[in-house]
Amino acid sequence: MHSALACSLTGEIHDFRVLQGLSRSGKPLLATYDLGALRGTWTPDIVRSRAVRSMWRFHEVLPVNSPEEAVSLGEGMTPLLKCQPTGPFSAFGDLLIKDESFNPTQSFKARGMSAAVTRASAFGVKTVALPSAGNAAGAAAAYAARAGMKCVIFVPDDTPPANILESVCGGATVYLVNGLISDCGRICRSACDRFGWFDLSTLKEPFRLEGKKTMGYELAFDLADYRRTSDLQLPDVILYPTGGGTGLIGMWKAFDEMEQLGWIGPQRPRMVVVQAEGCAPIVKAFREGATSASLFPNADTIASGLRVPAAVGDFLMLDIVRRSGGTAVTVTDSQLMAGVGELARWQGVHAAPEGGAIWMAAAQLQKEGWIRSDETVVLFNTGAAVKYNHLLKADGLTRLDHRDPAVLDQLMSVS
Ligand SMILES: Cc1ncc(COP(=O)(O)O)c(C=O)c1O
Question: 143-164: per-residue pLDDT in tens?
Fold first, then answer.
């Protein structure tokens, strides 16, 4: 259970016994824990021995006293897959995919929503509201349903149909907005003020970050298993598809917490922000040497999760990328869809366009020599291709007539 909420800019402490949104300075609040008291008593082996098959096996650093208090659908514990060294993937030494499409509602958003809805539910919140690019909507609807809460969602009107369907089927009230997620966010904020709903916008409440940070904890355990050692391990490079940046900031926080727990040393992976060319506020700010990002004009990309023209955690992301020795890169929409195809054909991984972007960015960085062949590289596939069926094509299909005696000749002609 957390012991305080600190402003990510000023460090000012806020009362954790009341429901909190942004800090008094208008910045994200970060949950802190008494890690000194846990050090030495809470160990990786205790985590390993637990029967809980979800991210709640890390409940000591989540907003509950015990896993039973969690609003859970079994989120987390996603596979870390080694890429087959074939085709374009053969240039890498040790390339791994943390496949977050295995989560409930098929994206990493489940982790954040499980934690945030758990905390809101503990405070007796009846209605949550949020803007979403798509996957967060589906996850919020599911966790709100599980908690018996009402859920109001504002999405851009060209949000993937699968995300709208799953949200409506999950009982949420969905509003289609003729704008971007930032426009949805403004309506959501005003609606929360007027109707007394709780604003679940990413980083505008402290616990979606806490849920997503479990990706960082899990990765250290997965990599230890992969290398057959009991000592927790981190990779050399992590590539992360960045919209609001909650996962990136969360993982960095997890690494700091693990160091304070005595579980890992001071070494950190180089963190790579990957954005779409048509919406790259963080990449632009990184290249310009800025410490915060300005609104990206005319944001446009088919990777809906990356269409975030302004992020409240911009200054945190930029700081993390620089401190880690990382970088920030873009890929075009046609490249990221090519990436989806390559992951499916060479690895059997059906990734979201955001995952396709990550793979293409890794290939680009490897060609430039920024990633070396002796390095361990982890790609985060944050969602599932199936939610983006409207973007996928099945070319070259042949129809067969089962009554045709020469049906097999056609097969030979296709092979
Ligand atoms: C599949 C996918 N990947 C990445 C992102 C961006 O996530 P974050 O806000 O943590 O940067 C989103 C957000 O909607 C998403 O749906």
Answer: 999 999 999 999 999 999 999 9
Count how many domains the chain has.
1
CATH number of 297's domain: 3.40.50.1100
From the CB of 342, is ligand 1 less than 6 Å away?
no
Ligand 1 centre and the CA of 286: distance in Å?
19
321 in any annotated domain: yes
Question: Which numbered atom of ligand 1 lies nearest the CA of 136?
Answer: 14
The residue whose CA has the least distance to atom 9 of ligand 1 is: 244
Res 1: pLDDT = 66
Which residues lie closer than 8 Å to 52 by C-beta, 6 or more apart? 59, 67
User: Is the beta carbon of 202 within 6 A of some atom in ligand 1?
Assistant: yes
Q: Give the tens place of pLDDT for each residue, 309-358.
A: 999 999 999 999 999 999 999 999 999 999 999 999 999 999 999 999 99
Q: Is residue 271 one of the residues assigned to a domain?
A: yes
Q: Quick check: 413 pLDDT over 80?
A: no
* Span 48-76, average pLDDT: 97
| 293 within domain boundaries | yes
242 C-beta closer than 6 A to ligand 1: yes
Domain annotation covers residue 232 = yes
Domain extent, residue 299, equals: 80-106+207-391
pLDDT tens-digit readout, 3-46:
799 999 999 999 989 999 999 999 999 999 999 999 999 999 99
354 lines ligand 1 (CB under 6 A): yes
